[in-house]
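Sat 14:20. Reprocessing the chain from the morning session after the first attempt stalled halfway. Input below, unchanged.
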Amino acid sequence: MKREAMRRILDTIAGMFPDARCELNHSNPFELTIAVLLSAQCTDQTVNKVTADLFKKYKRPEDYLAVPVEELEQDIRRIGLYRNKAANIRKLCRILIEKHGGEVPRDYESLVGLPGVGRKTANVVISNAFGVPAIAVDTHVERVSKRLGIAKPDDSVLEVEKKLMRLVPRDEWTITHHRLIFFGRYHCKAQRPNCPECPLIDLCKEGRQRMKASG
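Finished this time. Tokens:
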């Protein structure tokens, strides 16, 4: 994709979703890290319902280690893969206490070294909690990027991230991440995307085929 086409995409989604933001409720870097870890294969809406009570009960890493793992599992039971996530939360909290003074580290390499924290989670945390420009590629960002021709259909998540970083100005990385998510979540949905009203339909081969098939 040429930068001119990318600029058009950026300006278009900025007009559609000027106030796009992280929709996971949190009040500090630690809460954000826990929320993003819980959000894997789960909607932000469900995570927010769970963390509304969770963050009242557990405020520090020590709090998650002060209860039996079975109790934490019950507290996040509505979340998919809750047993694995409860175990990872406790491991993460133990490492935060032992290696980072109980605080979430600000650098990417330390973050991806934490249990349950991959590239996407680390990028979300450093960009939203610490203001470091980053593009986190979740399912929405990946889908939209491939539909609009920013990336190829068989590109890996890492390849999608690298292409976005190359095409998007660095000072727009974080807001672009949020706007691509909103575009994918509320407009270019996985099922029944709003192709008839899409201002970027000419860039989307899949969308044009869908429109043609629908008559």
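The first helix runs from residue 3 to 16.
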